[in-house]
Specification:
globular, Arc Repressor Mutant, subunit A
Length: 154
């Protein structure tokens, strides 16, 4: 079953259970997906799971940034609201790989692409991000790549 169908089922369940937070978050997600489908010039039903997940990742990133901003502005009530939405949206993403598995995959990818110093960071990041394919955040991957690549002195 594709993610679009899962959203429909989850929306129905949230409506039956009276879970307004979940209902509203899923409706918002569906709205964003419709807008994205319009931009891609294809029906929502034809969107691949990867395209849907990229939209969800973008929304998750926005929620994380909003939480930080609300906390900086002492708006804990709004930060909690965003955290609830973040939790709901995260349920629809694949589980991120563990620290050890990510470290192993990054070191293998660096050896495979031939990156040997920090000057190869761009090439290495592009190669590694294709390997992890959405199972790890770009920030975490960058942190590991920079730790593994030695800094080259001029």
């Amino acid at each position: 079953m594709g993610l679009i169908a899962v959203f429909q089922d989850e929306l129905k369940a949230a409506m039956k259970n009276g879970n307004t937070q979940r209902r509203d978050t899923i409706r918002f997600l569906q709205s964003v997906l419709k807008n994205t489908a319009i931009d891609l010039r294809k029906p929502v039903a034809d969107m691949s799971d990867e395209e849907v997940q990229s939209v969800i990742k973008k929304l998750v990133k926005q929620r994380k940034e909003s939480i930080a901003q609300y906390r900086a502005g002492s708006r804990e009530d709004l930060a909690e609201q965003e955290e609830k939405e973040l939790q709901i949206l995260s349920e629809f993403l694949p589980e991120e790989m563990g620290e050890e598995a990510m470290h192993k995959m990054v070191s293998e990818a660096l050896a495979e692409c031939g990156a040997v110093s920090s000057k190869d960071l761009g090439k290495a990041m592009g190669f590694v991000m294709k390997k992890v394919a959405g199972r790890a955040s770009g920030d975490k991957v960058r942190e590991i790549v920079t730790a593994l690549l030695p800094v080259e002195k001029d």
